[in-house]
């Protein structure tokens, strides 16, 4: 794949303003950095044998409920709603948006890329093993927002494995090895530690199980930002969705990259988007 040369910055003193809290506009240099970093993650997916797919922009609430999403993360969900007819007429007449009622659609914006892939495989047999990769816009209702580290909406690249228990473990081990090698070549120092997922009920059974037997580990940059993770699902999703592998309940695991957080880590390590891009180009050349 040919390396992209970022276009010159707009002439004059044009400043791209962030539309609101938790929202960012990436100017040309950081936008190029996002594309180049995701190309590296896609190269890793290719090395792991993952087929690229495009996930859905919305997820059915009913499907997420089957995966215990609302028992674990109800506070993170961002719903998709529509204006009823009366509100549409009021808006068309210049009425205030904030005062108009909305009607639920039964859909949510994704908070992770893998949910759409999981739901797409329900009641199917994946044979001896299947790897898929996708990048999606993900959305989370956080209690605060912080630059590129914590956003309303962000890009998440995932590489997901479905198959045997041994295959799921091998996927995570190989992903960890490749990810640590990539970070080293990019000049990012990472630590590897158990995740502390933002469960709604910190005393609940799922949170307690995570503390006793961590199934998610994060790769954390020097300033404490978690920029990637590896996740062992066991056979949970296989059981809930009827996914099988060669006739048995499928196990699954995934590797996830928060792309804007990688931009943040690269800027922390190299100082400017230009220097960060040069480092990425050196790795890809």
TrEMBL record:
Transmembrane segments annotated in the record for this chain: none
UniProt-listed PROSITE patterns: AA_TRNA_LIGASE_II
Leader peptide range in chain numbering: none
Superkingdom as given in the UniProt entry: Bacteria
Coiled coil: none
Keywords: Aminoacyl-tRNA synthetase, ATP-binding, Ligase, Nucleotide-binding, Protein biosynthesis
Aminoacyl-transfer RNA synthetases class-II family profile domain ranges (all copies): 36-285
One family name in Pfam for this protein: tRNA-synt_2b
Name of the protein: Aminoacyl-transfer RNA synthetases class-II family profile domain-containing protein
């Amino acid at each position: 794949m040919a390396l992209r040369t970022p276009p010159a910055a707009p002439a004059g003193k044009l400043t791209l303003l962030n539309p609101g809290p938790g929202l960012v506009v990436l100017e040309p240099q950081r936008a190029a950095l996002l594309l180049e970093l995701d190309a590296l993650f896609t190269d890793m997916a290719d090395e792991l044998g993952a087929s690229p797919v495009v996930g859905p922009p919305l997820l059915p609430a009913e499907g997420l409920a089957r995966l215990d999403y609302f028992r674990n993360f109800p506070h993170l969900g961002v719903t998709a709603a529509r204006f009823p007819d009366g509100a549409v007429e009021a808006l068309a007449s210049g009425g205030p948006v904030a005062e108009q009622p909305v009607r639920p659609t039964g859909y949510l914006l994704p908070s992770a890329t893998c949910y759409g892939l999981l739901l797409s495989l329900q009641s199917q047999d994946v044979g001896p093993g299947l790897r898929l990769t996708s990048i999606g816009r993900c959305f989370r209702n956080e209690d605060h927002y912080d630059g590129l580290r914590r956003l309303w909406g962000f890009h998440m690249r995932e590489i997901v494995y479905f198959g045997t228990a041994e295959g799921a473990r091998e996927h995570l081990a190989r992903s960890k090895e490749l990810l640590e090698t990539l970070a080293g070549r990019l000049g990012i120092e990472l630590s590897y530690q158990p995740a502390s997922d933002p469960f709604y009920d910190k005393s609940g059974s799922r949170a307690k199980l995570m503390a006793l037997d961590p199934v998610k580990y994060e790769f954390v940059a020097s300033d404490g930002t978690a920029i990637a993770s590896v996740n062992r699902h066991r056979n949970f999703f296989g059981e809930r969705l009827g996914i099988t592998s060669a006739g048995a309940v499928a196990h699954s695991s995934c590797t996830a990259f928060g792309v804007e957080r990688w931009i943040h880590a690269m800027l922390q390590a190299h100082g400017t988007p230009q220097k960060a891009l040069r480092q990425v180009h050196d790795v890809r050349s």
